[in-house]
Design brief:
The complex is a heterodimer. By secondary structure, chain A is mostly helical. Chain A has a domain at 10-47. Chain A has helices at residues 10-17, 23-35, 37-53, 77-87, 90-108, 133-137, 144-222, 225-244; strands at residues 110-115, 118-123. In chain A, a hairpin with a 2-residue loop joins strand 1 and strand 2. By secondary structure, chain B is mainly α. Chain B folds into two domains: 1-89, Rna Polymerase Sigma Factor, Chain: A (Orthogonal Bundle); 93-187, Arc Repressor Mutant, subunit A (Orthogonal Bundle), CATH 1.10.10.10. Chain B is globular. Classes of the chains: A mainly alpha, B mainly alpha. At the A-B interface, helix 1, helix 3 and helix 7 of A face helix 2, helix 3, helix 6, helix 7 and helix 9 of B.
Chain lengths: 245, 187
Amino acid sequence: MNTQNNCNMHEALMSYLYDESTPDEKLRVETHLTDCGACKQELHAFERVRGMLQQWQFDDSPVVRIVTEQGPGKRSILAVLKELITVTPIWAKALTAVAMAMLVLAVLGTDISVGRGGVSLHADLLRRNRAVEPANAGGQQNPMSSDRASIEQVRAEMKSLVNQLVADSEREQREQIKAELASLQLQLQNAHTADLAKVTSRIQEQQTRLKTIERDIDRREGLDLTDILFSEVSKPAERSTAGGD
Amino acid sequence: MELSDTQIIERTLGGEPDAFNMLVRRWERQIYGLTLRMLGRDEEAKDATQETFLSAYRNLPKFRGEAKFSSWIYRIALNICNTKLRSRSKFAVSLDEQREVSGFELAADLEDLGSEIQREQITRHVRRALQGLPFEMRQVIIMKEYEGLKFSEIAEVLGIPLSTVKTRMYTGLSELRKRLEHLREAM
């Protein structure tokens, strides 16, 4: 029987030890083990080592949470804009559209007239007639003046409407943020309570283990020198006494 | 129905970053086990676990899906462990290790240990024996013995040939055998 482990069966032994051999390989290893004492001995030793390794278990586990304030990796500006448009509420979109339209109209110098004849629009891109208007204004009662007053009124109404919408949106946002904060606070409290319960339970477990260990130590320390020295001597005497009875 | 790792990754990348926490919950124990056994120190292992998931999250867009998510995250964890081990001072000994050294020899000679104490002692010996192994062998043994990976999976994680994995495993077990053989009686 071979006693030196120079069989070059290392890889096959590993597969066999962890039950990953192919049927052919398994047969080859088993046949080899019947002839090779060194490999057989080594295999048994490895099995013992595996048994020892398995003694190292753990019952603790970390609580890992990834706070996902922004998505993984870097995002493009386009993606950010897209997300912004997606999350914007419909009323905010409408408000933005109205504001944009007003801005465009203002830039184009558009006059909106609301009169008896209905609503009329006048776009004056270069504002060429503006300089002439004041000169005519001082003479006779301008028929356009009533229209202008109504335009001012409409402007004022629109301004107040926009202001009101802005105020409403701000209020809604504030309320939304407040609600989110409250929800986050609640979540945090829940997490805190759960963690606390976990810690308490672990402390109790550790205390129980500590008590077990302490009891064991006490048991061993309880044996005084006399017990240790005479324990072996006293046993035969006890046995003989017991035999005598 | 439980989502697969790949489905969770797709959701995360598709605009549901919170979905990543499902992966964290699924893999944190394994990663903690790996880092704890690689580093041998609890607090350091917890930090390494946190860093592993943070790194995975940040690099998720780079995950191609060619390998399994588990292989990818194990590789990240091992890299972090390697960095931590290299940055350790050779002379720095943790309080745990100091305690182990003080009670080590005495306990090894005691007979009739209570089973709890005996288990603790063997664990300490095993931990020290593993810590004494070179990094390459240790990572293979830990992935095989504690994480239950197949040899082919370990080869995938480490990007090395299958035969190299088995050779490292064999050499590592032989080393452990030398270091732990004296505990044979206690088993």
